[in-house]
Amino acid sequence: MKQIFKRPKALVDVPFHFCPGCHHGIIHRLVAECIDRYKLRGSTIGVASVGCSVFLYDYMDVDVLEAPHGRAAAVATGVKRACPSNFVFTYQGDGDLAAIGTAEIVHAANRGEHITVVFVNNTVFGMTGGQMAPTTMEGQETTTTPFGREPGTNGYPIKMAEVMAELTGTTFVARVAVDNPKNLMRAKKVLRRAFETQIKGKGFSFVEFLSACPTNWKMSPERATRRIGEEMVPYFPLGIFKEDNASGV
Amino acid sequence: MAEIEFVKGNEAIAMGAIEAGCRFYFGYPITPQNDIPEYMSRHLPEVGGTFIQAESEIASINMMLGAGATGARAMTSSSSPGISLKQEGISYMCGSQIPGVIINMSRSGPGLGGISPSQGDYFQATRGGGHGDYRTIVLAPYSVQENYDLTMKAFDLADKYRNPVVVLGDALLGQMKEPLRRHKYRKKKGEKDWILTGAKGRSPRLLKSLYLSEGELTEHNWRLYRKYQRMKREIMYKVEFLEGAKLVVVAFGSVARILKSTVAMARDKGMKVGLFRPVTLYPFPYAALDKLSHKVRNFMAVELNTGQMVEDVKLAVGHKKNQVDFYGRPPGSIPSPDELLEEIKKVYNKRVKK
Ligand SMILES: Cc1ncc(C[n+]2csc(CCOP(=O)(O)OP(=O)(O)O)c2C)c(N)n1
Ligand code: SF4
Fold first, then answer.
1. pLDDT > 70? residue A249
2. Which CATH architecture has domain B4-187+209-233?
3. Assembly ipTM
4. Interval between CA A94 and ligand 1 midpoint (Å)
5. Could you tell me the fold of the domain covering A24-243?
């Protein structure tokens, strides 16, 4: 019998610690598939952030460095400058990248660092128990917006992919989701292009994943996955915001 | 032998770093140490190195963490307020055992304070500074030549112990110009078998500071503790005028430099005063001072702050019948050799000539 679905080699054979219905596991898998596809297992240095994905190193069969909360893009800058021929990626949540680490991501992008950023937008701080993130939707209840996010006092959900695309230093910027088979297939292709951007030496690539956090959304996995299409996509549109056409990336 | 050049203190640090193989510099400008990034931005490219003017001190220290994790020799420099911002990163580097060199050409605080010389960061440098029970080696130069020499040594120590090393100078040591004799760096042998280079042909490596399973973190911290204990081998200090001394002045860095003239003046006046200068502030030369206290009873700590290192002097000699006096000049002005002589006289007359 032909095996058509197997674990990517770059993904270690251990069960994920993520909650049922969490999309972190799927996104880890997509990253591992790309590492396999481009034969990067021996040259990748991953930079883990602080959030539910802090255990990246338990799952990825590659060298991994732990960054302080929010600083992954600066850490990756140091790694990539010192090892320009290695493949360097960061994996960051929305608290990590869009709150405490905003300065680091904006400036790494603006310098056009040759790194690939996997950004997981689940509209909450997952690891610390579901507090408001910069990406939390208007009206969304979290443990620190018990009456719903109110823009007058909490500001607006920040659209990081659009912010990144605005910066002259970035090369490839996209937003994807993994909430249905069609989006998943599209996400795979988009992530490959982000990887290729770095492999071809074209510069900074950024992929925002809309991701479910059933636990802190207080929803069933099915309901949480549905929320992505119903509530998030209308506000956080999917698509490629920027690409380097000339190079054929 | 290398010829003598006339060099500014900050530049000597940058020269020493490049000579010691530092190829990555990350920093954010702040007075009074801007000659360091300026020198590095001009001269690192000549040796194939990388200079980044980062968006903040927080980014700088984390870039250094990244470069250090790959085995590269990397440095960041700043002055007091910027060093405060680096503390989280230094804590992570200690926890993850990543080497790197941090230069603090300290200035006056608290807050924005001022740009005059100060030793107000002694506690921050020697007690860990950031969160968690960690230590960094702290080297305190007192001349332009030592700025050069100790910066070179800082890279070796950082690699040897897989730990950040702080070079603690101040505005005076950074700004003054003195003769410098540059010398060739001799590379220390030793392979770095822990660095991240991509897991080609081997199992993956991991550098982290998070330890959550039962007992793991305690064990990790004991390991770090044993390492800090081993650092005691690196203790350095300098003594002068100790023969027959009845009062030993203890001082480091720029104020020790001023005191050198003062103590010579005191000797000329027939006062039996000696000088003890810790060069490593961590680990502190407790044992050497303790030994000295069996011959000398009276000690006097002099600092450009309101009393920080004096606590270590008391820890070292503050037993038996020893006396530890203190003179401190809070940030904002520098005492002259004559002013210091008056302060030493007061103590000498009280303790020795009773
Ligand atoms: C300096 C600092 N501040 C706060 C924290 C606590 N903290 C850990 S993870 C986190 C937010 C995680 O949220 P996110 O980045 O969205 O990732 P998720 O867990 O949702 O995947 C916070 C605030 C920390 N570790 N360090
Ligand atoms: S808390 Fe949310 S983000 Fe974290 S593992 Fe659970 S579902 Fe995933």
1. no
2. 3-Layer(aba) Sandwich (3.40)
3. 0.95
4. 9
5. Rossmann fold (3.40.50)
